[in-house]
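Late entry, evening session. Most of the bench is empty. Finally got around to the prediction I had been postponing all week. Sequence below, unchanged from the version circulated by S.P.
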Amino acid sequence: MKKIVVLCILVILQTVSLMADSTKGLEMKSERFKIGWEKLKEIDGSAGENVISSLKDIAPQFADLLIEFPFADIYTRKELDLKSREIATIAALTAMGNAKPQLKVHIQAALNVGLTQKEIIEIIMQMSVYSGFPSALNGLFAAKEVFEEQK
């Protein structure tokens, strides 16, 4: 259970991206931030920009931390590829059952790194065994929204 809680915390942190505008002053950011920023762009594209945009007025330093820890320190590790990391993230967010905005960002990220819609559906359905039908249903409906937005 402790591992799941830690994983869920990491997943929540992973959901945040930078606004395109925030590249101004990037030269003043730490190397760790720059690495995280590049990894974020690779994974999420523009999907997380709204989250950072909403944080810039209230907690810009928190946005920096969200870039540095998950994207520079975790996502750049070599032990798992990006597809595997997104599988874990979708599973954790689905199991949480209350993180629909973050789940949608990571469903899009999973598509960005090469997972198929069928694979994403299977990941979410697998979670019904461990987290119950309500959380799996919520996850499937989130996936449906992301898939429809792509049409």
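Two things to note before I forget:
Helices lie at 2-14, 31-44, 49-55, 60-74, 82-96, 100-112, 117-131, 133-149.
DSSP finds eight helices and no strands in the chain.
Will write this up properly tomorrow.
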